């Protein structure tokens, strides 16, 4: 919603600034107001769709880009409300908001933005279950997020391959070549970000599987995460990416190394026993 001049966008920005400053009470109030604004927009859209259903202007059933966008935004705001509850120690409220966020994002369909947001929401539910000690439920949520992120990475790679195919554009001007280069760079960044998200999901699920005693799958997931991170660390691959992605790669690589050390220590203990 960046750059959008609307009441909902303004309230969301206020809420995000409040939660960043640690004022969860103010953040919750702003997010609830934002949610109410978005729900009114959804209701108005549904009424308009119902009024025009079956006409030439509006076919019955289905959802358009505006509906998907609103569902994505509502899902994000419910996730933010869950974050407020989590900061306040309200586990029941946190879970309720996160689960509603998942429901809304699932309703948005196969939109790439919605799918990415859904993977985050599923991981949040998984983390909450993990903290509650329910590793089986946590693993189920992590696995669902992992499947989504595998598909997202594959889609990003296919898109990047098409953009970077080197096929000449009509006119062959310098401006066209520059535009092609910008598209390829954006594709590379999107692929890098998707690969990092997938590596993070592998590490989350690996930890849960290890806790459940499923050492074989845990090791395979850890190996997959390490391969993804090492692939990004190839010469020139990560250097061209934004600093936030470089920091994320370094942080995940450090966490993966720690998990590998723990696994090796456990193997030594198992042998001694």
Automatic annotation (TrEMBL):
Q: Mind listing the UniProt keywords for this protein, alphabetically?
A: Signal
Q: Which residues form the signal peptide?
A: 1-21
Q: What is this protein called?
A: Zinc ion-binding
What organism is the protein native to?
Micractinium conductrix
Species lineage: Eukaryota, Viridiplantae, Chlorophyta, core chlorophytes, Trebouxiophyceae
């Amino acid at each position: 919603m960046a750059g959008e001049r609307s009441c909902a966008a303004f309230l969301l920005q206020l809420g995000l600034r409040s939660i960043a400053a640690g004022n969860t009470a103010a953040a919750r109030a702003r997010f609830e107001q934002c949610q109410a604004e978005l729900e009114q927009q959804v209701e108005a859209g549904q009424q308009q769709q119902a009024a025009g259903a079956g006409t030439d202007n509006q076919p019955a059933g289905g959802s358009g880009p505006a509906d998907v966008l609103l569902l994505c935004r509502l899902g994000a705001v419910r996730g933010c409300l869950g974050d407020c509850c989590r900061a306040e120690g309200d586990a029941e409220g946190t879970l309720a908001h996160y689960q509603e966020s998942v429901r809304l994002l699932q309703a948005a369909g196969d939109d790439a933005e919605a799918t990415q947001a859904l993977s985050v929401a599923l991981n949040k539910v998984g983390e909450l279950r993990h903290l509650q000690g329910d590793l089986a439920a946590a693993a189920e949520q992590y696995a669902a997020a992992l499947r989504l992120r595998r598909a997202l990475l594959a889609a990003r790679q296919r898109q990047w391959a098409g953009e970077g195919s080197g096929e000449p554009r009509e006119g062959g001007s310098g401006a066209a070549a520059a535009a092609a280069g910008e598209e390829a760079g954006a594709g590379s960044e999107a692929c890098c970000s998707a690969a990092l998200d997938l590596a993070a999901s592998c590490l989350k699920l690996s930890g849960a599987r290890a806790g459940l005693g499923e050492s074989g799958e845990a090791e395979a997931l850890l190996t997959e995460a390490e391969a993804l991170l090492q692939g990004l660390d190839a010469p020139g691959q990560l250097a061209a990416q934004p600093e936030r992605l470089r920091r994320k790669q370094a942080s995940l690589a450090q966490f993966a190394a720690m998990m590998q050390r723990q696994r090796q220590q456990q193997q030594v203990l198992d042998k001694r026993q």
